[in-house]
Amino acid sequence: MAVTAETRVGGAAAPVAAARRSRRASAPRTGRRSRPLTAYLFLAPYLILFLGFIVAPAVFGIWISLHDYDFVLPFKPWVGLANYVDLFTPGSRDFADFWQSMGATGIFTGLSVPCLVVLPLGIAVLLNRKFPGRTFFRAVFFLPYVLGVAVIGLLFRYLLDPNVGVVNYLLGSSIPWTTDLPWVWVSLVGMTVWWTLGFNATIYLAGLTDIPRELYEAAEMDGANRGQQFWNVTLPGLRPVLVFVVTTTILASANMFGQQLLLTHGAPGTSTRTVIGYIATEGLGSFRMGAAAAMSYVLAVALLILSLIIFRVFRDRQDES
Amino acid sequence: MTTTTPLTSTARVDPQLSAIAAGFSRRRFLVLGGAGLALAACGGGNSPAGQPGAPDTGSGGADYTGPAVTLSFWNGFTGGDGDVIKKIVNEFNAAKPNVKVEMNIYQWADFFTKLPAAVSTGKGPDVACMHIDDIPTNAARNVIVPIDQVASALGLQESDFSPAVWQGGTYKGQRFGIPLDIHPLAMYWNKDVLDKAGIDAEKPPTNRSDYESVLAELKGKDTQGFWVSPFQFTGAFTYMSLLWQFGGDAFDAGVTKATFDSPQAVEALQWMVGMVDQGYSPKNVGQDADYIAFKNSKNAFNWNGIWQINDLKAQNKINWGVGPVPQIGSQQGVWGNSHQFVQLRQTKPDQNKVDATRYFINWVSQKSAEWATSGKIPAKKSVAESPEFKALKEEYSLAPEAAYVHFPPAVAGIGDALTELYNAVNSAVLGKASPQQALSDSAKRATQILQDNLKKYGA
């Protein structure tokens, strides 16, 4: 049953299709004789942008990371792998700060991803039911997502201020939401979940509407209750969507920056300074672009490995079923 | 580093960073990937540092009689001072038909990320304003060009200014900045709160014992009188003022070593943290909360920039006063900064534009009393003592501070080292580390940064 559902989830929303693209590409081609030139022509508009704005800068970034690089200075000394070696040498200028910020990013990702995978799924399942005002509520949950990080950051800073904030006033408490551990993480994760859950919920919704009704009817005939239907029809049907949601949420969380900059400014001390925050400070604030590029690559490799693990986990699950 | 925008908090974080925050949403980061970030701002041409964009052949700005030109003028005056500079520019355009100035106002944040890239691709402005401590970095990074000739043509000399504001505009013996204003930290007091506590609101405390006894009195009446912010605005500015008052300094004379772990520096931070420990300040003061509380009569004193004067004038909820910060330590001292005119490097220099730019700088410098209405002290002594400036009661009350104001040292990349100081203040005020511990740790890192910068920018 699960397999059937899986094969039917074809024409979902674009992001879902994107998530599946890699798998499709490996499927044997059938149909008309292929004319490579035509394909490349169709690909060209995106390919040019992709090469110009993603691949070329990424390769250039490797070059930068091998230098003591400041783009306005005429002399950009070649330092080889020194920028990378420093990141793994205790006592170097960046070692402690970089790994502390990697840790902060890790904490944030570890806390926010489960919330951003599970909560939107629940909301999507609720919003997928037929009830009056459904469209309204769909809009309501998506609404925060259209706001910029500056708006959200400022809004929550005033809501959560430990001494003059609305939240503490209403609770009659003096919880240091923006200035002390562990509350800063509660605030950062909470506001991010509120802000972005609508996006994931929308992806889930697209996936849900794509699961054929007949499967639920068949499950009902077999005597499955609501819970069993969810585990055996809904979840397997959502698997490709789930891979997409988990992967993109991890990447987005690992790139968290604006929230900590505006809400906590890294406080207390530099506890909530994320790795993107540190890279930005060093690369664009101190103009140490070589070191910052090296940090970016270490982060990118870490995320690449994490993404591969996730794909592997989901694929293994699929093989089991 | 300073902003003149009261409470537009995005402008109050590190300029470069908030620009990035505004420009890059979470999802856009997703597209770019972490790696893309450091690359986004790269690329562009170069020419050797320290060379003027054009030879010094003009009049140096005493007048401009050449053909009609249009100048581009960038600054970060997004607050009430934006209206004042607009007015001054309009007056200039009306007075000088052959020079048209087109002004772009950016958030300081965007300004400092856009400027180097714009200049290195030949799309930079002709003239700009920046802070005194930004000048060495931008001079070393070849964004701005020397303007010694403007100073000499205008007959400007050190004795016209306070030494700090004059020397701050130089880098490696060359002048890069023409001082426009000084904007120091000030003490604001809420007269309503003091009145209610039975304290003379017309005679605010000016020394340590008076200040502490007023705070104790307020505490007895359930008011935490002096909220200590752990953040750069305004905690770090408060700390730096105290640091100088207690006889310490952030760096050694050559700015090769951080000295904000000295006994004086520790004592200064201990006094500040003591405000929290003694209950004169609540714990965990959030960003801007000290000022918000002040405007809502929750506290009595706020050490904040002179630029808040206009924001307080615009409200009628509280009665307030402003004056020099009290002397807590053994000597007078206060944190301040200064806006200065700079001329940008051009890839295709146009001598007429260079001359017109110098004339424009000269012309606006004469108008610095008008500029002071935006919450500034004129940099030029003669203007600071003029009747026009004396008529600005609040601003003029801070004029004495110009005699003992300290600016961040004029050394390339100094902001990188100051960030460490801000972090130490944050940790200590939030009770995460003792003042000694926080300052020692940060000073060690700051020294390393200073050494790296010496290598990078040259001694």
TrEMBL record, chain A:
One of its GO terms (cellular component) is plasma membrane. InterPro entries: ABC_transporter_permease, MetI-like, MetI-like_sf. It comes from the Bacteria. Gene3D superfamilies: MetI-like (1.10.3720.10). This is Multiple sugar transport system permease protein. Keywords: Cell membrane, Membrane, Sugar transport, Transmembrane, Transmembrane helix, Transport. One of its GO terms (biological process) is transmembrane transport. It is found in: Cell membrane. Residues 102-310 form the ABC transmembrane type-1 domain. The lineage of its organism: Bacteria, Bacillati, Actinomycetota, Actinomycetes, Propionibacteriales. Belongs to the binding-protein-dependent transport system permease family. It comes from Microlunatus flavus.
TrEMBL record, chain B:
The keyword Transmembrane does not apply. GO terms for molecular function: maltose binding. One of its GO terms (cellular component) is ATP-binding cassette (ABC) transporter complex, substrate-binding subunit-containing. GO terms for biological process: maltodextrin transmembrane transport; maltose transport. PROSITE patterns: TAT. Belongs to the bacterial solute-binding protein 1 family. This is Multiple sugar transport system substrate-binding protein. The lineage of its organism: Bacteria, Bacillati, Actinomycetota, Actinomycetes, Propionibacteriales.
